[in-house]
Amino acid sequence: MKETQEPDLGLRRFLKGLGLLTGGAALLSTAPWLSSCTPGEPASTKGRKARIALIGCGSRGQYHLVMMRSIAHAEVVALCDDYKVNLDAAHAMVPSARTYTDYRKLLEDKEIDGVIIATPLGLHARMTLDAMAAGKHVFCEKAMALTLDECKSVYEAYRSSDRVLYYCMQRMFDEKYIKGIQMIREGSLGEVVGMRCHWFRNADWRREVPSPELERRINWRLYKEYSAGLMTELACHQIEVCNWAIDKMPSQICGMGDIVYWKDGREVYDSVNVTYRYSDGRKICYESLISNKYNGMEDQILCKDGTVDLTKGVFYLENDNLNSGMKQLLQQIKTRTFASIPAAGPSWRPELQSRFTPHPVISGKVSVNAGQSMVAADNDGSDIILSAFCDACLSGRRAENVVEEAYCATTLCLLGNMAMEEGRTIEFPEQYKIPYMKF
Amino acid sequence: MFILLGCLAAAIATNIGAIIYYERPWSELFTQVGFMLTLALCLYAALWAVRLAVFIIVLIFKKLF
Ligand SMILES: NC(=O)c1ccc[n+]([C@@H]2O[C@H](COP(=O)([O-])OP(=O)(O)OC[C@H]3O[C@@H](n4cnc5c(N)ncnc54)[C@H](O)[C@@H]3O)[C@@H](O)[C@H]2O)c1
Questions:
Q1: Residues near A28 by Cβ (< 8 Å), separated by ≥ 6?
Q2: How far is the C-alpha of B38 from the C-alpha of B7, rounded, in Å?
Q3: I want to staple B18 with a disulfide (CB 3.0 to 4.6 A). Which of A240, A325, A427, B36 is the partner?
Q4: Domain region containing A168
């Protein structure tokens, strides 16, 4: 590990913003994974740099390389990709890094502390297992794996190892999500009664292919050999947030999936509607469609007294007593006017969506992810989670619950696909339950 | 002029009423000035319309009888 004097400003700023540097202990019960990167503890890491390697130098891998530039306590020392075009592009970004075309050769390199895995989903499990077995700390892109059995193998390998393992579920390190969920967990908006998440885009998910034999390699997202489609690529983040909000796992899953518009030879659905039901009757209503972007992306937690839209970092109150007195008076007059419409008897009035006033969950500028990019959004927590991983490569501290949250979200996404393919309601299978899950 | 002042007084009174009823901070007396002025102008415009209507009706009556 190399010497450096610079502190990690990004991570410190983030922790300070959350109030953790001044003893915001209550936050740790909402986001226990933050405890592994609270300064004070990793005194041993001061003045050192984690040596990081990147496996998979495609679009997300290159995005991580850009993020790594601002992480002072780490440096990229090696790159691996078996597609020359991407390896060369990444090498141009970090000319000092050693290059590999076989990740197993890279794992033999003793001068590497941790690896970032940004390859197609079908390779995540094998690469993660091999990297941990080679003694490396691992930061793997979501989702955890392509199959339920692979998820279980990775989880068990993690439990029996002492290596650090992170999954890039960046919402867990996004300030507006952390504060929003803390607010929900504290009950400020009343009981959570349901969850509604969607991700709409109008794009075919295709990338240009230089020659036809590369189709499946480059457009891996469209084929079941490497990808589980919308559920693992998009829903995974959102399902994790729902479970995190109520600290519970759904026990039943049903849904329907189809290829509605992009009938271009792809094997994965371009339209999914999945319902996850918790044992107490609450549900996640999940929808994703990539041939219309009107509704954008939203993670809504519906509570008895209000709604939090975590994507935008705002909350709305059912009875908005945060509005000025004059505004509330006007709203009341409006509601009364509608309520007095006499059509179809006294119980009927138009249930048009009322206009609610958004209130910010956190003060200051909040960056909102419109969900239209296939690579990343600005300040969505990706830089912070990567920085936390690099910090952990130095301290050796494993982050609490990160792997467990990724396991829960991934298994639920894979079960969502199973429910859609088999056209039946699925009970969460016993053999894939882990002690962390609360049903 | 007196009518306009009366409208303003009514708008301020409404704001005070709303502050008390909805238990809002007294600072809204200042922060909601825009709202109060708009309300005062609306009231004034409404009164003006009523006055115009009365004036026209009276005029018609005078012409007829
Ligand atoms: N967390 C997020 O928000 C987010 C956003 C985008 C992508 N991702 C994830 O990142 C991963 C990569 O996505 P992407 O869009 O960068 O894909 P990509 O196709 O652009 O990049 C994948 C790279 O992996 C390389 N690769 C494939 N097999 C390999 C092997 N055996 N050895 C070495 N390299 C190999 C490919 O050549 C390619 O360069 C996916 O798992 C995706 O789900 C996550």
A1: A20, A34, A35
A2: 10
A3: A325
A4: 9-172+380-400
CA atoms within 13 Å, Cβ hemisphere of A68: 28
More reliable by pLDDT, A352 or A211: A211
Residues in Cβ contact with A362 at an 8 Å cutoff, skipping those fewer than 6 apart: A17, A175, A176, A179, A313
Alpha helices in A219-324 (DSSP H): 230, 236-246
Contact list, A321 vs chain B (CB under 8 Å): 22-23
A83 lines ligand 1 (CB under 6 A): yes
- Same domain assignment for residues A210 and A152: no
Residues A136 and A242 in one domain: no
What's the confidence (pLDDT) of residue A26?
77
Same domain, A76 and A205: no
In tens, the pLDDT along B16-39 reads: 998 988 888 899 999 999 989 999
Instruction: Tell me the CATH number at A232.
Output: 3.30.360.10
Residue of B nearest to A322 (CA): B24
Question: Are both A54 and A137 inside the same structural domain?
Answer: yes
CB-facing half-sphere around the CA of A1: CA atoms within 13 A: 19
Contact by Cβ (8 Å): A386, A172: no
| A56 CB within 6 A, ligand 1 | yes
In whole angstroms, what is the distance from residue B9 CA to residue A394 CA? 68
Same-domain status, A260 and A370:
yes
For A330, which residue in chain B has the nearest alpha carbon?
B18
User: What number of H helices and E strands is found in chain A?
Assistant: 14, 16
Candidate from A54, A57, A60, A220 with most ligand 1 atoms within 8 A of CB, to mutate: A60
DSSP A399: P
Ligand 1 neighbourhood includes A169 CB (under 6 angstroms): no
SS3 B58: helix
Backbone angles phi, psi at B47, to 5 degrees: -65, -40
- Tokens 């079960």, located at residue: A415
Statement to judge: residues A41 and A117 lie in one domain: yes
For residue A387, being part of any structural domain is answered with yes
Cβ-count burial of A407 within 10 angstroms (0-12 exposed, 13-18 middle, 19+ buried)? buried
Same domain, residue pair A147 and A192: no
A202-to-A260, A271, A379 alpha-carbon distances in Å: 12, 11, 23
Question: pTM for this structure?
Answer: 0.86
Count: domains in chain A: 2
A chain contacts of residue B26, beta-carbon cutoff 8 Å? none
Where is average pLDDT lowest: A31-45, A118-132, A196-210, B44-58? A31-45
How far CA B38 is from CA of A117, B8, B15, B18, in Å, comes to 59, 9, 12, 16
Write the pLDDT tens digit of every residue in A225-279: 999 999 999 999 999 999 999 999 999 999 999 999 999 999 999 999 999 999 9
Distance CA A302, CA A246 (A): 11
